[in-house]
Amino acid sequence: MAISSPNTQKLTQISACLMSLRPLWQVQAFECQSLPWEQLFPTLAKSVWQIDDADIDALDIDQQKLVSFLLPSLLEDIATKADNAIKPDELAAMLMNDGQACHQPSIGHQPSIDSLLRLSEKELSHFSAHIKGRKWQQITQFADHVPMDSLPILEWCAGKGHLGRYLAKTHDTNVTSLEWQQSLCDQGQDFANRWQLQQQFRCTDVFKLTDNPLKAKQHAVALHACGDLHVKLIDLAAQSETQSISFSPCCYHLIEAKQYQPLSNVAKQAGFRLSRHDLQLPLQQSVIANQKQLSLRHQEICWRLAFDSLQRDATGSNCYLPIPSIKRSQLSASFTEFCHWAAAQKQVDITAIKDIEKYLHIGFHRQRLTRRIDLVAHLFRRILEHWLILDRVCFLEQHNYQVEVFEFCSNSITPRNSLIQAQKR
Fold first, then answer.
1. Distance between CA 272 and CA 259 in Å, rounded?
2. Is the pLDDT of residue 89 over 90?
3. 398 with 226: CB under 8 angstroms?
4. What's the whole-model pTM score?
């Protein structure tokens, strides 16, 4: 039976938005020879071509700035469409709110400092050893949002069990850490034993389970479980009626199926399908450390597109040809050398191409195009992520859970900062 809630209503609203504006975000820029939605959204097309190339990265990094710049043109185009399913004011609210509407107020759910006070500076130093700064911040801030409900904890896809170890110490509870790599289990167990923690490791491939490791009287936790991993967790938890679940989803595209399999009844009725490529859209927001790295990234994309144009002429193909990862040193060589390397990798005969260097110019112009296609698609990266989060929320609500969503840390620590907290009713 379908359950109506504010979350299902929000998921339905976002579904309508994504469905209506699908040409703008469900696109593979490398395949395009022009703006694929130019005729449908002419004002938006004019706006993106007016952006100076040097300003694109600054817009792309700042989601609010990106929305503020492109939204007026998009709304102007939408206003001319009598049959458009999404109301301009609703779209503006969703984009301007940066998709945060599914997050609950943080009042009453602020991280408690009590748990931190249980660890001395020396203990904190030992616990954080060999953990990079941002990762350590993610662990502690995630853990400090986990309710102290006295339930034994099951740590899902634990790695070395850093999160479980911290919870075992600060929450004074028993932790079972599941991890498929024996070497990581051994290292984690050694640390737990030395600190006399209530933490036990089980070397388990969660995709090859013969029985359900989750129990009813348990609190399941997972920090940045990728794709199918966190989907498997909440499916097994729902089957076992596990009392509490706290997890942060990540890397939605890491799934075995070619197409995304919606979890909730509402998402199944959305009317569109998501490929693995579509599922990468929420992850396409990163800050490249310095100008040199940024310049090399742009050069690499330009060369890839240039070679693609070359191989199309050489083979008569009309499809984008991906090539393997390249070493930074290859970008210091000549473009012609790069093309011969790429041709060898993909077994493409380019001997008939006499003027290879001309394709560099073609690649530059294709890159200008793809950057603008991607920029418009990035308007929807947060909305799509919240659609995916709400799909998980609504699935859990269908299984009689009370669910809330919080940001457990700032976006600067990690953009994947959503914590889904579920409590069996």
1. 11
2. no
3. no
4. 0.91
